[in-house]
Fold this sequence. Notes:
Blueprint: E1 14-15, E2 22-23, H1 32-48
Antiparallel strand pairs: 1-2
Amino acid sequence: MAIDPAFAGTTGGYFAARDARPLQCPEPGRDPRVQRELWDATEALIAAHPAG
């Protein structure tokens, strides 16, 4: 999918591995509070392990 021209304009999303049909994000991932917690945790991990 990453190099398939059919997805050239697509950014992000969930897709079936077998046929690349779009899938809906699982329920917990649609919760803005959960999204913020994930963002904050990711940011902390990146800050703790700087590149270089």
